[in-house]
Write a structure and sequence with these properties.
The protein is of the alpha+beta class and 147 residues long. It has a domain of 102 residues: 3-Layer(aba) Sandwich (Aminopeptidase). The protein is 28% helix and 37% strand. The chain has a seven-stranded mixed sheet with strand order 1-2-3-4-5-7-6, sandwiched between helices. Strand 3 and strand 4 form a beta hairpin. The radius of gyration is 15 Å and the shape is globular.
């Protein structure tokens, strides 16, 4: 697989491309839209993008920094033609490596019901009871990173 993972700076053309992908895959199916506050809150977050050899954006994810040791993974999206081809797994594994390199020891996330098997395969554990967010059943999950 000739995919490359990049950190994407806020308010760049690549950031806009990530936002468009997230909107198309995660938001529009739920009739949700980004508003200016949503976007502004991402200024201090860490954005990852996965591109193929043809420079096509295949997927992305975001880390929200909770404290010096914990990150919240959010807005993981893989474009439809690339789903089921290891893009999401590559994004998560490489972002975990980045987290370890930068001193983080734990990642938490809220997984949609349909994504539960994906995160379990990557060794994330359910914490607590299911809850509803944006009209969808979610599970809080976490993973302690091995140092």
């Amino acid at each position: 697989m000739q995919n490359s993972i990049y950190l994407v700076p806020f308010a760049t053309p690549a950031f806009d491309e990530l936002m468009a992908l997230r909107d198309r895959i995660l938001r529009k199916p739920l009739n949700l839209v980004f508003d200016i506050v949503d976007i502004q809150e991402e200024y201090n977050q860490v954005h990852f993008a996965c591109y193929n050899a043809q420079c096509q954006l295949m997927g992305c994810l975001v880390f929200h920094i909770l404290d010096d040791s914990v990150l919240k993974m959010r807005q993981v999206a893989v474009d439809n033609p690339f789903q089921g081809k290891g893009v999401g797994t590559q994004l998560v594994k490489e972002s975990e490596n980045w987290a370890l390199t930068n001193g983080y020891t734990k990642i938490v996330l809220n997984a949609r019901d349909v994504a539960l098997p994906f995160y379990k395969k990557l060794k994330y554990k359910k914490v607590g009871r299911p809850f509803t967010e944006v009209g969808i059943k979610h599970y809080k999950m976490e993973k302690k990173l091995k140092t």
